[in-house]
Amino acid sequence: MNTRRYPRTMVPVAAGDRFGRLTVIEEAPRQRKANGASLRAMVCRCECGTQKVVRLASLREGTTVSCGCFHRQQVKATISKMAKTHGQSKTAVYHVWQGMKRRCGNPADKNYHRYGARGIKVCAEWLDDFEAFAAFMGPRPMGMTIERLNNLGNYEPGNVRWATYTEQARNTRRNHLHTINGVTRCLAEWCEVLGEPWGTVKKRVAAGRDPFKRIRARRKS
Fold this sequence. Notes:
- The chain is of the alpha+beta class.
- The protein folds into 3 domains: 8-67, no CATH class; 88-170, no CATH class; 176-220, no CATH class.
- Helix content is 37%, strand content 20%.
- The protein contains 9 helices and 8 strands.
- The protein has helices spanning 56-61, 69-86, 92-105, 124-127, 130-137, 165-171, 187-194, 198-206, 213-220; strands spanning 18-19, 22-32, 38-46, 51-55, 144-148, 160-164, 177-180, 183-186.
- Strands 1-2-3-4 form a 4-stranded antiparallel β-sheet. A two-stranded antiparallel ribbon has the order 5-6. The chain has a two-stranded antiparallel sheet with strand order 7-8.
- The longest helix has 18 residues, at 69-86.
- The protein is elongated, with a radius of gyration of 26 Å.
- It comes from Variovorax guangxiensis.
- This is AP2 domain-containing protein.
């Protein structure tokens, strides 16, 4: 019997060995890093049935214990527990809190590139404490959403408020200024003043057209 003791990072790994929810099937082709170094990897099968290639070092160090299902279950359980604790999982402010965290912390979220990828974060006080967030913000007023006063700042006390979509549009980093008859206003303000639909005006801008061309022409005539 082999009684040799190995450092944790040198433990021999063979087919059939288990690491958390993963069972080793066979060795996979080496994985190459950007610097040219090659790393050993193993083909593993998770308890859920998913097959995954995992770096050998990650198995030995315990940093990978499933195909990803374990982490997803933990997150789901945490959210479920929090929802039962405060009883507000169906409230508007709870959905705002969840959306805020997704766009700042989940690269798969469709708006992550505008928030998390730019370094915008949810403060530690609110990240895992919905009740602290709800206590600061209060109930969400009808027709309003959360706005950061400093568009480069984080979601944190002193930098957020409830605002209408029009108010948010005025504060966007991509806002457009337009001058009509010597008066300069942002796009959202002109929509209010002229009674132009915000969605229609945005489409004109996206198409590279002057959103108020007809109005300028009427005012000149």
